[in-house]
Amino acid sequence: MIPTGPAADGPLTDDGLVQLLTPAGERVEHPEYDAWAADLDADRLRAMYRDMVLTRRFDVEATALQRQGELALFAQSLGQEAAQVGSGHALRPQDHVFPSYREHGVAQARGLEMTQLLRLFRGVDHGGWDPAERNFHLFTLVIGSHTLHATGYAMGVQRDGLVGTGDPDRDAAVVTYFGDGATAQGDVSEALVFASVNRAPVVLFCQNNQFAISEPTTRQATVPIAHRAPGFGVPAVRVDGNDVLATYAVTRQALERARSGGGPTFVEAFTYRMGAHTTSDDPTRYRTSAQEEHWRRRDPIERLRAHLDRTGELPEVFQAQLASEADAFGEHLRTTVRAMGRPSGPSMFEHVYATPHAVVDAERAWFEQYEQSFVDHEGHQTGGHR
Predict the structure, then answer these.
(1) What is the distance between the alpha carbons of residues 255 and 240, in angstroms, rounded to a whole number?
(2) Distance CA 142, CA 136 (A)
(3) For residue range 92-130, what is the model confidence (pLDDT) as tens digits?
(4) Which of these is catalytic: 44, 159, 286, 353?
């Protein structure tokens, strides 16, 4: 756990980061977290590597689709694969995830059909998947608001008696993902208050990618982001977010604390957003090529690859199969997105509430009448509004 005092080196210090793999892929020992990564055999590490590679391919394809006009917008997770995949692999099936809008690696680790994520960015619906299917809730575009949703859900899990029973197939936890910029929102502070006083089984997972859109972390805080949590009574830990083993171990411990009734944990995964904030952003306006190169040498995928190479656990046949799978995955993404049909106008009123709602019904009826007013008696559309 982190100390509660101020850090002389400010919010970008790497002092105290939990690390199990160096940037060169060397395994290093940690007195507290080695035990939490002890179950990661070669097969599980290759599964993590696969998810990271496919997550990056997802980013590359989705970015290209946006540039071609097939998506309205896209937010990359480029460079943050270890933080997402490592923490995602620490989850149990009964755990719940409340993402922001960049957690593609967590979705991949949870087994979501990845084309469903792109329905939102194509604008064909409000979010194209059933949250109950994988306990992966819808993307949230309102910065920080979902930390309250997650905390409230965790309080519900607690009151349903699904915490601290000792049954590993029953006890559940909630994890919510957000960025460093979101910690400046009041919602996150309020979530910390509720999580603390209720001992809610929630892990507040901050991916500190060093930029809140174009504002660097150094202009958001004077100490590490995780140092805010102890002031609310929430224990916190800082982890090397480009180290998939360390991220897995730290998250696994935090989730187990939550499931057993030990309350919330704040995790700061210190990483770097290698891409733009979204495809409408130009990061060259606010960061240098030297900074980008520094972090490129700390690429999370290359780090795990180097480790697997070092230990002789990355056979050529596996690499060839993964390359083929990635190519097929890319083709599947392109084909599926381009085949997504245009939704009907009234479909915007569906799935707003779980049960019928008089106001929504009235608005739907008015909209359908309005749409019909643009159609003449022969059924031909008139006017240029469409």
Answers:
(1) 18
(2) 17
(3) 999 999 999 999 999 999 999 999 999 999 999 888 799
(4) 286
